[in-house]
């Protein structure tokens, strides 16, 4: 790591799997027979708000039962001690990176513990449980939804992420299938900018061939081995 100063780390559902949170695409990747693509759209929210709210209510409740694992802790330690630029970009909506102590973190697909007002755009801590007909404290409209980036919506902080990728010396991808864009394209942006690229995953991802190196195994072992 001698010649590396700027690091971007992309994480996905696989990093939280060993904490007990289900991934999306795999044997446990279904929720009550629904594909994630059927629940996580603005159209689904409009068509069947109760179903979408229940999906996120159940996942939010599950957060109280799980803890960060060795991979989250290893990344938080790296964040604390790394003198150069470092950015953890997580696609996950759980809070396990921050509970492990990570500070330089972007939730590009939103957060379970945040609510978004569709009327005024305000984000606020999710009032748990959300009483029916809850009002937005900023505009008083009854228009709160989960602060989650659905398919077809723009992920958060893309400008910041893009800038970090363009000056990265190392791009590390952990526990993501590489099935969802724009995150799946980050490896190409980083490579074009001259970064070294490494993937840590339980199996080769969809974009495995874009990486210079792939290490196959559980994140709780591979991440501490790499960063400590
Ligand atoms: C382990 C492990 C262990 C297990 N250790 N590993 C280009 C081409 C085609 C389509 C598109 C395109 N660009 C955009 C699109 C459309 C769409 C898209 O990508 N569709 C695809 C289905 C093709 N993208 C969008 O709509 C996005 N918005 C957008 O593009 O806006 C326009 C734009 C234009 C230009 C620039 C920027 C933007 C929005 C995507 C929103 C995704 N939302 C979801 C749900 C919300 C969050 C939530 O409910 O949690 O986000 S979908 C779901 O997938 C979730 C995840 O964050 C995301 C990625 O999944 P992830 O994390 O990779 O999980 P899995 O389950 O797929 O994989 C887990 C991996 O871990 C596996 O490989 C396992 O092997 C591994 N693993 N255990 C290590 N112990």
Give your account of this protein's structure.
The chain folds into two domains: 7-21 and 67-109 and 154-227, Rossmann fold, CATH 3.40.50; 111-148, no CATH class. The chain is 31% helix and 19% strand. It is built from nine helices and nine strands. The chain has a six-stranded parallel beta sheet with strand order 3-2-1-7-8-9, sandwiched between helices. A three-stranded antiparallel beta sheet has the order 5-4-6. The chain is globular. The mean pLDDT is 93. Residues 12-14, 17-18, 23-26, 29, 36, 40, 91, 93, 109, 148-149, 151-155, 158, 175-177, 179-182, 201-203, 205, 218-219 line the site of ligand BJW. It is an enzyme of class 2 (transferase). It is found in: Cytoplasm.
In short, what is this structure?
This protein is α/β, with parallel strands linked by helices and 228 residues long.
